[in-house]
Design goal:
This protein is mostly helical and 285 residues long. The protein has 2 domains: 44 residues; 235 residues, MetI-like (MetI-like fold, Orthogonal Bundle), CATH 1.10.3720. 77% of the residues lie in helices and 0% in strands. The chain contains 11 helices and no strands. Helix 3 runs antiparallel to helix 8, helix 3 crosses helix 10 and helix 4 packs across helix 6. The longest helix is centred in the first third of the chain and has 41 residues. It starts with a helix and ends with a helix.
């Protein structure tokens, strides 16, 4: 009876193993087909004129300059708004906050906020920043909305980086007479810097591909100029891609494929930096 049970158990384990391999390779194959189709359609459209031209109603003259610069603006402003607050909140929750019932509720809600759909943050930004604070569809309103979106991600990931710092380093700092803040500033943060930077880059990589919250806030689909200040109207690459995909002309779909390639290159580059820092951290420790 036991042998039969062991045989059935091994068979189930083997079946689950191959099912997992099938799911993994199926996902990779679908991703390869998707990226291959994008490259096949869009590589021929990529050119310096395409990158440096403004959007146009004529597909052969349309470019991504305003969307690309809007993306750069929104990412820089989002980083300036979200990084200090996210890292500061993580340091407080991990190093200073007491383990109380209220603190546990706060931590649980932060973790839940990291999984809320982005469209909810768009509605929140629309009500608070666009209507209540009367920012309109400006870069500042979009950046503040995306900052709220990635703030829980930065907090959760930064706390994990702080937890990974060896306890012996912290105790050694205290033993040498350092205060708590000196220990955090000179020991904990340098030791966790790779993990913190990685979490920030991953959070920004998510924000750079978001279109739904920015559409809700009031980002435009057609902007024939480069933003010059935080109060300027703007568009970003995901919204430009969405606009072109919704057009019936085949040439606009080719433009969308070329813009997707540019967006993928930006995201892959940011994630490559995060992977490099993660590997460097593992080698260091």
């Amino acid at each position: 009876m036991n042998k039969r049970y062991e045989t059935i158990k091994r068979a189930k384990d083997g079946a689950f193993k191959y099912f997992g391999l099938f799911c993994t390779f199926f996902g990779l194959i679908m991703l390869a087909i998707f990226i291959g189709n994008i490259l096949f359609e869009g590589l021929g459209r990529l050119s310096w004129d395409f990158i440096t031209s403004y959007s146009s109603r004529l597909p052969e003259k349309a470019g991504i300059l305003s969307a690309l610069m809007g993306t750069v603006w929104i990412m820089v402003m989002t980083a300036l708004l979200a990084i200090p607050g996210g890292i500061g909140a993580a340091i407080y929750l991990e190093m200073y906050a007491k383990r109380t019932r209220f603190g546990n509720i706060v931590e649980l809600n932060i973790a839940n906020l990291a999984g809320i759909p982005s469209i909810i943050y768009g509605l929140l930004g629309l009500e608070i920043f666009t209507y209540q604070l009367q920012m309109g569809g400006s870069l500042l309103a979009g950046a503040m909305t995306l900052a709220l979106l990635i703030l829980p991600i930065i907090i959760v990931a930064t706390r994990e980086a702080l937890k990974a710092v060896p306890r012996s380093l912290i105790e050694a700092s205290f033993a040498l007479g350092a205060t708590k803040w000196q220990t955090i500033r000179r020991t904990v943060l340098p030791a966790a810097s790779s993990g913190i930077i990685t979490s920030v880059i991953i959070a920004l990589s998510r924000a750079i591909g978001e279109a739904a919250p920015l559409i809700v806030v009031g980002a435009l689909a057609y902007v024939p100029f480069v933003p010059t200040s935080p109060t300027s109207d703007f568009t970003v690459l995901p919204i430009q891609i969405f606009n072109w995909v919704s057009r019936p002309q085949k040439a606009f779909l080719v433009n969308a494929s070329a813009a997707i390639i540019v967006l993928l290159c930006i995201v892959f580059f940011m994630n490559a930096i995060a992977v490099y820092l993660r590997i460097k951290k593992k080698i260091k420790y």
